[in-house]
Amino acid sequence: MPHAPTGGTAPVDTLHGLTVLAAEGGGTQTVDPSGPIGQLITAALLGIVVIIVLITWLKVHPFVALTIGALGVGIGAGLAPDKAVTSFGTGFGATMTSVGILVGLGSMFGRMLVDSGAADRVVDTLVRRSSKAALPWTMALIGALIGLPMFFEVGLVLLIPIIVLVAKRSDVPIMKIAVPALVGLSTMHAFVPPHPGPLVAVSTVGANLGTTLAFGIVLAIPVIVLAGPVFARFAARWVDIPAPDMFGSRGSGSSDPAHAGREARRGPATQDTASLPNGKSDFTRVISEPRSPSFAVALVGILLPVVLMLAQAVREATAPDAAGAWVSLLDFLGSPIIAIGIATVFAMVFFAIGGGMGRSAVAKSLEDALPPVAGVLLIVGAGGGFKQVLIDTGIGGVIADAVQESGISVLLVAWVVSALVRVATGSATVTTVTAAGIMAPIAADLSTPETSLLVLAIGAGSVFLSHVNDAGFWLVKGYLGTTVGQTFKTWTVLECLISVIGLVGVLIAGVFF
Question: Disulfide: which of 18, 54, 70, 147 matches 188 by Cβ 3.0-4.6 Å?
Answer without folding.
Answer: 147
